[in-house]
Amino acid sequence: MSTLTPILQVNNLETVFSTAQGSTKAVDKVSFEVYPGEVVAIVGESGSGKSATALSVMRLLSTPPAQITGGEVRFQSDRFGQLDLLQASERQLQQIRGCEISMIFQDPMSSLNPVLCCGKQVAEALLLHTKLT
To answer: Is 124 inside a domain boundary?
Structure first.
C-alpha cells in the first residue's frame, strides 16, 4: 500500500475577530487533512466557525477585524511545491487561488454576479488560470 501525502494540512489554526467590545476566537485550534481524491465536509451549527475556518485557510478574511493568531496551513501547490498559505505572499496566493485551490461561498449574492451570464463567470477562472481561449 502506498503512502499518500495530503494536499492540504491544517494544523492548530486559530482566528480571532476583534471589535470595540472585545475579541472572539472564531477558530480554535482546528486541524484536518485532505488527501488527493478525497472530499472533506466541515459541519456544525450556525456560528460554529465553519466559514471562518474556510476563509482563514484561503486567507480571505479582512484584517482587521479578523486576525489569524496561530497554526499553519500547508498546501501542496503544483506551482510552488509545499507552501504554508499563512506565510505565502499575496502574489503567490493570487496565482494559486481559483486555479489550484478555491471555495464556493455560501452566500449566492457574493458568489455570482446576477447581471452576468453564469457561463461567463465560470469561464473567467479558466481563462485567468489556464491557456484556454
So the answer is: no
Band of the pLDDT at 108, cuts 50, 70, 90? Answer: low
Mean pLDDT to the nearest integer, 65-71: 94
Which pLDDT belongs to residue 1? 45
Q: Give the DSSP letter of residue 61.
A: S
Query: In terms of residue numbers, what domain contains 83?
Result: 8-104
Neighbours of 67 (CB within 10 A): 14
Q: Dump strand ranges (E) for 20-123.
A: 22-34, 66-77, 81-84
Distance set, CA 68 to CA 4, 8, 38, 45, 118 (Å): 28, 17, 26, 22, 33
Q: Tell me, what's the pLDDT at 117?
A: 87
Positions of E strands within 1-133: 8-19, 22-34, 66-77, 81-84
